[in-house]
Amino acid sequence: MSYLLRLVVPDRPGILGAVATALGRAGIDIVSVDVLERGGGVAVDDIVVELAEDRVVDGLITAVTTVPGVAVESLRPFAGQLDTHRELALLEALAGGGAGTPALLTAELPRVFHCGWAVVLDAHGEVVAGSDAAPAFAGVALPWLPLEGPALLPSEDDWVPGRWRDLAVEMMATPFGSAATVVVGRSGGPAFRRSELLRLTHLVGIASTVSQLPPT
After folding, report:
1. Class for domain 2-77, per CATH?
2. Which of the four CATH numbers 3.30.450.40, 3.40.50.620, 3.40.640.10, 3.40.50.980 does domain 86-211 have?
3. Distance, CA of 108 to CA of 43 (rounded, Å)
4. Beta-carbon count within 10 A of 77 CB
5. What's the rounded Cα separation, in Å, for the pair 91 and 60?
6. Can you tell which superkingdom this protein's organism belongs to (predicted)?
7. Residue 143: predicted pLDDT
8. Residue 185's closest CA among 149, 210, 216, 154?
9. C-alpha–C-alpha distance, residues 66 and 75, integer Å
10. pLDDT tens, 51-102?
11. From CA 151, how far away is CA 137, in angstroms rounded?
């Protein structure tokens, strides 16, 4: 089974190699590594690993924490499709542009951000397009609309419905065009980082521009 392991590690040469060695000694295979952000002497890494059926999940945490200075921020099952060229594939698909762009974004953004769902909302909070796993936004008050800029929407915010808060639904959002908003989310954490929000804003900005181009 695959798991997504988010680590906070000292930002020094060889640290990822040390983590890889520790996991290898425990018989755990690394499938992919994404460096989310660096600064203040630390780095935040998302590592997708494959755990054999005879291995216990606690072994993941035990293995990586044998490396001095490494902390586990979160660990959760990973059931998404793994694609090391996720953003390039999305940009290539966006080149088609047109009215299908919202549906394309909601289908592809969960893969880009290792998250569970994505929706495009209109100015009134109505869902224009959404992935299959997206929660129901009908009847949910969204005090942050209209969204003036990119925003992290943590699960502990006051507006978050109790049922979402119980599931620790973490979200981030960014404007899409002049009146729409893209929201992506994951249940059970980890919370989105500002580096992820910047990537989302960049991709959605490209999508907004492409959607306004005349068909070729």
Report:
1. alpha beta
2. 3.30.450.40
3. 26
4. 12
5. 34
6. Bacteria
7. 95
8. 154
9. 16
10. 887 778 888 899 999 999 999 998 888 766 555 556 666 766 776 655 578 9
11. 18
